[in-house]
Design a protein that fits this description.
- By secondary structure, this protein is mainly α.
- The chain folds into two domains: 92 residues, DNA polymerase, domain 1; 158 residues, Intergrase catalytic core (hpI Integrase, Chain A), CATH 1.10.443.10.
- It is built from 14 helices and three strands.
- Strands 1-2-3 form a three-stranded antiparallel sheet, with no helix packed on it.
- It is globular.
Length: 295
């Protein structure tokens, strides 16, 4: 009689390390599809988190366990939607490879998420960040976020070798580990003259030839935000990217051009920067002719 994959797994793996073994197999499955390394790492982190909260090995979770976790309070809908996606990808793999016969995530309903809106820093707030007494490397991170529209992961991985001053371009790694060239803003070109010409702009502190983590960039800019006295909780280091997109939209730059600058996969991701600002609404109202009121 043949032995199923799940029976082999339960025979070979102790309950404490069952998750690690199945997640290693899931990682190989995803790499075979050429998924981005960041996606694979993020899914593992989310699945580990669910297993810890539920106090269950992943292969023993039921649909009710998944629903209870996704229903927990105090978590943004967008985060819950991402978690649901990770669970569904994992359990589809588990069924496909024979570790389970029933997919407990199949009955999970879509998560309703409010429409995305840009949450940019104002120019005055960015000036406050830059003038709050932060170190040079922190200022460089802020400028890369604003003038190049970089995500924190892109900021962390900038190298002097990526800057081509002659062609006015900057090489970066976008989502999906895709290498792309973007126009180099003049402010960043000037900044590059004072930064390392070769190697990482923001090297790790352990002496290895690696950059700092994106999470470290988030922490550093968040500290600058607090130092500048900016208290709005909706403003995050990612808001510098939103500032870039919003200012480009306000300046009348074509949506497709903004898409290429920000390296969005779809134009829908760029459309949040086309929302009409309060200033433009006011300008529109004030454009109406002035009529004299009757006496």
């Amino acid at each position: 009689m043949s032995v199923s994959a799940v029976e082999r797994a339960q025979f070979r793996w102790h309950a404490a390390d069952m998750n690690d073994a199945i997640l290693d197999a899931f990682a190989i499955y995803q790499r075979s599809q050429r998924l981005a390394l960041t996606t694979i790492k993020n899914r593992r982190h989310l699945l580990d988190g669910f297993s810890r909260r539920a106090s269950l090995p992943l292969l023993q979770a039921t649909t009710q366990d998944l629903r209870a976790d996704l229903a927990r309070e105090g978590v943004e809908p967008g985060t819950i939607r991402t978690e649901r996606g990770a669970l569904q990808a994992f359990y589809r793999f588990a069924v496909e490879d024979g570790y389970l016969t029933v997919d407990p995530s199949a009955a999970l309903k879509p998560v309703r998420v409010p429409k995305n809106v840009a949450r940019p820093f104002s120019v005055a707030q960015i000036e406050a960040l830059l003038s709050s007494g932060v170190r040079r490397r922190t200022r460089a991170m802020i400028l890369l976020g604003y003038y190049q529209g970089f995500r924190v992961s892109q900021i962390a991985r900038v190298r002097g070798d990526d800057v081509d001053l002659l062609s006015g371009r900057l090489r970066t790694v976008a989502k999906g580990d895709k290498v792309r060239w973007v126009p180099l803003h003049p402010v960043i070109a000037e900044l590059a003259l004072d930064m390392p010409r070769v190697g990482w702009w923001f090297p790790a502190r352990d002496g290895s030839d690696t950059p700092i983590q994106g999470a470290s960039v988030t922490d550093i800019i968040s500290k600058a935000k607090r130092r500048a006295g900016i208290t709005d909780p909706k403003l995050t280091p990612h808001s510098l990217r939103h500032s870039c997109g919003t200012e480009l939209g306000e300046a009348g730059v074509d949506l497709r051009v903004i898409q290429e600058i920000l390296l969005h996969e779809t134009i829908q991701s760029t459309e949040i920067y086309t929302a009409v600002s309060e200033r433009r609404k006011r300008d529109g109202v004030e454009a109406l002719p002035t009529l004299r009121l009757a006496a």
